[in-house]
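Quick question, first post here. What does this chain look like in 3D?
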Amino acid sequence: MQKKIKLGLIGAGRITGHHIRAIKKNNNFRIQAICDLDILKAKKYAIENNLRFYSHYKDMCLKEKKLDAVVILTPSGMHYSHALDILHKFKKHVIIEKPTSLKTTEILQLYKSAKKIKKKIFPIFQNRYNKSISQLKKFIKNDKLGKIRLASLQLRWCRPQRYYDLSIWRGTYSHDGGALTNQGVHYIDLLRFLFGEIKKVNAKMKTLGAKIEVEDTVVANLEYESGAVGSLEVTTSARPDDYGATISIVGSKGFAQIGGLAANKLEVFTPDPRLCKKYSEKIPDAYGYGHFKLYQDISDDLLKLKKFPMDKKDCYKTIQFLNSFYVSDEKQKTILVNKVLDSKRLGRKNNKISKLYK
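> Answer (accepted):
Ran it through. Tokens below.
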């Protein structure tokens, strides 16, 4: 019988239940324990799923010595310090929710630390596993759309003031980032995943729908290394509901468009419109089903069946691309993405908030 991969979860927020469901679908995993500074939240998940629970990850890792990996589901600005601590002190693999970290330099340090102790980092970008996305990737690879000329993104979601008022870290540059970092990061990752690296970005950020320090609206012009161009619109200032995420592609052989709440539907595919229904899926929420397939890839890697598809360079490039929008807005000019390191704003220090989550 194959040995189970034992997991511990840090953080018992809304997304934690989705992770638990995805993990339990995979027979190669066993969740051993969960922790949260709000012990009642951890206890609730523990009772529902027959887990041990703790108030702090250090206690969990000290007492659960047989853990193979730790899943980090904490505020975005804590991902780096929590992951680094798990790697250094407890020598565990880390699975990290989006964004893996807020700074590109932190990504390099995480992978350097993991390599030193022969442990692995598994970033979570589950939308790559959407049926519509994975199939569009194949269509592009097989030249069904020809040479890509235009590739654009529109994300129109709703995050009212009450959402940001839920926690002190929300809506801050230090621990959250705005619409692009919190909600949009999955979709800018898809632009890279589908169409290759972006050469230039010219971005404008505004805060229009909430009283927060970060952006809730971004518009940008893009130039891909392939020569294609595109645009980006990401907002959480739509009211009163979420209206969807759309990626549109103009190629020399046809046009394609992916839409739905979370880029889960192939809405248009001119080379063969009959395929649209086949490569679309209904999803219950914006999380979709990608985590289920992602955890399969994680278990396959840990069991040495095949390598996890997102490596250090891939992860770094997405976080570098993320930072490039902020750098462009800060400098108010077009910037070369491959020259970007860190935004001055995104991930800046705020010890007052960090102390609350250490």
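The chain has two domains: 5-126+292-308, 135-280+315-339.
The radius of gyration is 20 Å.
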